[in-house]
């Protein structure tokens, strides 16, 4: 599939494969605009994740940015269709990159190379977990710009860092540096800038080496349970466990476990 090109002819989203093709690296590629999201990049992200979902050979994705920023948010000189992005209509969802990432049922690792601002912050939070360089930072400027979020920031951030910190971050547009982001749990770790992509690819490859069916099911359960009260999340886990165990039978469970342990 040909990459979608920007004004200068370069693809706004770069894509390549590693780990025998099982891991895809996607890099936002508008460094002159700090990888700000215009309609071309939004569409490229959406259609790429939809295509990768249909490709069973892809076990994990690493998402990063070119240059000094991960993503500066929506490009206000070339804004996307905000009404479409906020809509729950099926046609509009088909053009929503965060919905496409949520529908991709394998791990997405964010390699946060620089600043994540507003829509870029939301794009990062659509990943399953984030690893950052010391240059990583996060800032919610919705209230400064004069718009409200529609890609999940108002709900996801408080569930990750707690309501008080989330309100402080969003209602004061405070900048969260890499060390603070790691301490608060936005980043799972901070690594050297020059090692960032290699570390994330190694983590994605480790995931790709696991049982692919279980990784997909586990990814869905982790995501689906994220917004549920604990009692409902536990019920969801039991329901899906029973569904799988009932299909395998006791002998099948033992065979799977033995097969995995033999690889350790």
TrEMBL record:
Pfam family name, one: ECH_1
SUPFAM superfamilies named in the record: ClpP/crotonase (SSF52096)
CDD domains per record: crotonase-like
Superkingdom classification of source: Eukaryota
InterPro entries reported for this sequence: ClpP/crotonase-like_dom_sf, Enoyl-CoA_hydra/iso
Recorded coiled-coil stretches: none
Assigned protein family: Belongs to the enoyl-CoA hydratase/isomerase family.
Protein name (Swiss-Prot/TrEMBL): Enoyl-CoA hydratase
């Amino acid at each position: 599939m040909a990459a979608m090109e920007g004004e200068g002819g370069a693809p706004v989203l770069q894509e390549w494969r590693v780990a025998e093709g099982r891991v895809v690296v996607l890099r936002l590629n508008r460094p002159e605009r700090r990888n700000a999201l215009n309609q071309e990049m939004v569409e490229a992200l959406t259609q790429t994740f939809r295509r990768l979902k249909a490709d069973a050979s892809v076990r994990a994705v690493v998402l990063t940015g070119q240059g000094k920023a991960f993503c500066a948010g929506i490009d206000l000189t070339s804004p996307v269709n905000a009404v479409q992005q906020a809509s729950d209509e099926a046609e509009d969802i088909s053009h929503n990159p965060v919905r496409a990432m949520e529908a991709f049922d394998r791990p997405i690792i964010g390699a946060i190379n620089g600043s994540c601002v507003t829509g870029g912050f939301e794009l990062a939070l659509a990943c399953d977990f984030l690893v950052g360089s010391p240059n990583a930072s996060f800032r919610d400027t919705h209230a400064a710009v004069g718009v409200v979020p529609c890609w999940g920031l108002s709900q996801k951030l408080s569930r990750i860092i707690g309501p008080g910190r989330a309100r402080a971050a969003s209602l004061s547009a405070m900048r969260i540096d890499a060390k603070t982001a790691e301490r608060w749990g936005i980043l799972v770790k901070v690594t050297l800038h020059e090692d960032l992509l290699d570390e994330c690819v190694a983590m994605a490859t480790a995931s790709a080496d696991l049982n692919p069916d279980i990784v997909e099911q586990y990814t869905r359960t982790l995501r689906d349970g994220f917004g549920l009260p604990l009692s409902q999340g536990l019920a969801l886990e039991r329901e899906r466990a029973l569904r799988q165990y009932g299909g395998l039978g006791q002998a099948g469970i033992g065979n799977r476990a033995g097969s995995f342990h033999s690889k350790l």
